């Protein structure tokens, strides 16, 4: 395994330690103590080589047309839609369902290590990772199973807090250094690239309400799981900032289109999808919304150093 690091002077090292310390300490410092994220400029506004890295929220499993069934990769996922609009000379999408930060360095079936897609000619990288490190799938299964015990209460939250600490918050904090290492490796392999970290969309009602049995969680667990998703996005925002990467908020633009909404209005499918998509994943409208958020961030950041 190749060790990719990017030397960061004393000031950079202190800043990284401060931000990661905030994450590991429960995000106590939050963004107030963090300098604004910066990104490499996009040259003349048209990328030469764009590489997309990420997990199933990037790859778009179930969304037609599937171009890599093993990875659940669609040609209508948000990287593909961004590429259509930006028209880079070269576009490589190596996102793969089930990917964790470890798959940046190791193969996932026939999909090579995702970082291998980068080189010194890459000038735009989007990265959406961390959900599987935190355990999205396991959390959904656990909360759905526990809901039957106390459908009006918060059995899932109680379970994850049984030790006296919020285990999901701790897992997110422990994921921060992993994402940090990925971003340092991205900069090392593609030193001239503009790097964009993409957050996760809104899966559950932002007002904390529920929709049992459409989404089979106990009533009191909806606010807890909503806040857990926001905590993950905050961690990604902080780690992006310390690594000179832009951050794209896809949560805000997708509020009101979560998996509790009617089929015509939702951009995230519930555990029994009615549109082509994986359970608890964006459908084609959700991928399009994330693409618009990425494009808006790229346009807003053009020319920044």
What is the beta-strand fraction?
5-15%
Shape field? globular
Distance N to C terminus: 32 Å
The arrangement of helices and strands along the chain is HEHEEHEEHHHHEHEHH
Number of strands: 7
**Major sheet: size, sense and barrel closure?**
5 strands, parallel
Helix content: 25-40%
The total count of helices amounts to: 10
Poorly predicted spans: 1-8, 28-44
Structural class: alpha/beta
Q: How are the strands ordered across the major sheet?
A: 4-1-5-6-7
Please give the radius of gyration in angstroms: 19 Å
How confident overall, as mean pLDDT? 89
Q: What are the SSEs and their pairings?
A:
Blueprint: H1 10-24, E1 49-54, H2 56-59, E2 66-68, E3 73-74, H3 78-86, E4 90-93, E5 124-128, H4 131-134, H5 136-147, H6 155-160, H7 167-189, E6 194-198, H8 221-242, E7 246-248, H9 251-254, H10 284-301
Helix pairs in contact: 1-8, 3-10, 7-8
Short description:
The chain has 305 residues and is an alpha/beta fold.
Describe the protein's architecture and organization.
- The protein has 10 helices and 7 strands.
- By secondary structure, it is an alpha/beta fold.
- The strands form 2 sheets. The protein has a 5-stranded parallel β-sheet with strand order 4-1-5-6-7, sandwiched between helices. It has a two-stranded antiparallel ribbon with strand order 2-3.
- Mean pLDDT is 89; it is low at 1-8 and 28-44.
């Amino acid at each position: 395994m190749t060790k990719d690091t990017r030397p960061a002077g004393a000031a950079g090292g202190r800043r990284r330690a401060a931000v990661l310390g905030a994450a590991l300490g429960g995000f106590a410092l939050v963004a107030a103590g963090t300098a604004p994220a910066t990104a490499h400029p996009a040259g003349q506004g048209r990328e030469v080589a764009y590489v997309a890295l990420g997990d199933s929220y990037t790859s778009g499993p179930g969304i037609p047309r599937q171009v890599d069934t093993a990875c659940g990769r669609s040609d209508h996922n948000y990287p593909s839609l961004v590429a259509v609009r930006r028209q880079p000379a070269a576009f490589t999408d190596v996102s793969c369902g089930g990917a964790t930060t470890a798959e940046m360095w190791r193969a996932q079936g026939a999909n090579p290590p995702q970082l291998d897609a980068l080189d010194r000619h890459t000038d735009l990288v989007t990265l959406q990772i961390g959900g599987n490190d935190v355990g999205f799938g396991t959390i959904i299964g656990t909360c759905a199973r526990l809901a039957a015990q106390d459908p009006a209460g918060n059995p899932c939250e109680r379970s994850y807090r049984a030790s006296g600490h919020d285990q999901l918050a701790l897992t997110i904090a422990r994921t921060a250094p992993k994402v940090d290492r990925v971003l340092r490796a991205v900069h090392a392999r593609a030193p001239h690239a503009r790097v964009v970290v993409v957050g996760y969309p809104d899966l559950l009602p932002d007002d904390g309400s529920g929709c049992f049995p459409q989404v089979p969680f106990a009533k009191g667990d909806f606010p807890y799981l909503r806040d857990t998703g926001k905590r993950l996005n905050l961690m990604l925002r902080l780690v992006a900032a310390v690594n000179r990467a832009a951050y794209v908020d896809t949560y805000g633009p997708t509020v009101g289109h979560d998996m509790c909404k009617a089929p015509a209005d939702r951009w995230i499918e519930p555990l029994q999808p009615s549109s082509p998509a994986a359970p608890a994943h964006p459908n084609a409208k959700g991928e399009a919304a994330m693409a618009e958020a990425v494009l808006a961030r790229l346009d807003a950041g053009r020319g920044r150093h």
